[in-house]
Amino acid sequence: MSSQLAFQIVEALGGASNVISIENCMTRLRVCVKDAGLVKRDELSKIKEVLRVVGSDTEPQIVLGPGVADTIGGEIKKMEGIKYSEIKTEAVMKKKSATGIFSFFAQVFTPLIPVFAGAGLIFGVMKVLTLVFNMTGMPLFDPASSSFMFAVNVLASTFFTYLNIAVAMSAARVMGGNPYLGLIAGGIIINLGALAGTEMGVFGLIFTNGRGGTLAALAAGALIAVVEREIKKRVPDALKIHLPSLLSIIIVGLVTIYALQPVCGLVTDGITAAFLWLMDKAGFMAYAIIAGFFLPLVMTGMHQGLSPVHTTFIENLGYTPLYACCSMAGGGQVGASLALYLKYKHNKGLQRAVVGGLPAGILGIGEPLIFGVTLPLGRAFITACLGGACGGAVLGLFPGQGAVTMNVSGILGTLVNTKPMAYLVAYAVSILAGFVITYAVGVKDTALALFEDEEF
């Protein structure tokens, strides 16, 4: 069944020869095609298992839902004629639009999403085990002295310790370069050796390990791929083994140490300070606005543009209040969907859609409910956003809360928040508000008619 679906999708994309690259996140396939004119978006949208087709003409995104996207992505990569590894996405950086930048961020961070989620949840497991220790006194779970807990902490923290290396490698891969050169670029950022702590001699700056964070890693990884490619074009074949890597490391390494790190460091400091200032001055209203506008970002795929901001917060504060705030949007949508389920019991198509998307929604994956339930109903999408805004406002009443990782949200966000009860209360409010507002407002009969004969 999955192979048939993969075949249908590839055919609608204009055939295997039209696919330049393909990657998947938790819920959608992200594709780059050679000729946008060959893509049959209407046919893609009519495929039974496809929830929605979004994205640009040359970079369509096919929303399939959690798990399905990964399975179908794997099936497509096995198909004859698919050359998905031959990534030519340097064109992304040539675009001057914000969409191109967001696409770049998405392609860099998409392969890291499962690792963020898995490693981040281990922190949640540690919280649970610490709670067990506080209740029972079991020495095995003592966070201060247990070697077992120390070992679990190693499992949880290793990915985040080397996050800049992972980001730089992914950026180099996206730009069509050698990911292991990206490894060197990211490694330079986190380990300056004997330079660390010494003065740069410019503006009073000091060489600092990790300065610039993931933003510097993104830039260094992309730059080293571009430099390597340009050098390869200009050297004789006899020197292509040694010279491109040698010169790339020297050029980009020095640029990273003396330019990218200090500049990106100032930028990340500014981003962190700006958001903290906004959240401090505007208080709960800032959280409400952020949570209320997050679902439209997910709908367009632009939420990936926030990934460097989240990681900047994690690196600077140890947690990201912004990610926890965005999670409230999912709660509003869960509440809205529950209201629709109870209010329109006669509409079996709508009920099937809600039941199909609700488990993923509760676990923090919003696309199935966005594209399968609330967005087609129009008004319900707005009421879901309002529910999320209410939850965000409540969350803003608890300074110091935030997620210690990305891509763990929904009810599971409780496990990775610095203030679990604050998060849980706010999430419950977002569900309740989404439910009450949606139930009171309802949706148009003409919109409901879309689900009357729908088969799911």
TrEMBL record:
Mode of membrane association: Multi-pass membrane protein
Alphabetical list of InterPro entries matching this protein: Glu_permease_IIB (IPR036878), PTrfase_EIIB_Cys (IPR018113), PTS_EIIC (IPR003352), PTS_EIIC_1 (IPR013013), PTS_IIB_1 (IPR001996), PTS_Sugar-Specific_Components (IPR050558)
One Pfam family in the UniProt entry: PTS_EIIB
A cellular component term, taken from the record's GO annotations: plasma membrane
Alphabetical UniProt keywords: Cell membrane, Kinase, Membrane, Phosphotransferase system, Sugar transport, Transferase, Transmembrane, Transmembrane helix, Transport
PTS EIIB type-1 domain sequence ranges: 3-86
Domain PTS EIIC type-1: 96-455
UniProt-annotated location(s): Cell membrane
GO molecular-function term, one example from the UniProt record: protein-phosphocysteine-N-acetylmuramate phosphotransferase system transporter activity
Recorded superkingdom: Bacteria
Chain segments annotated as transmembrane: 101-126, 146-167, 179-196, 202-227, 239-260, 284-302, 354-373, 380-401, 421-441
Principal subcellular localization: membrane
SUPFAM superfamilies membership: Glucose permease domain IIB
Active site: 25 (phosphocysteine intermediate)
An individual GO BP term: phosphoenolpyruvate-dependent sugar phosphotransferase system
The protein's name in its UniProt record: PTS system IIB component, Glc family /PTS system IIC component, Glc family
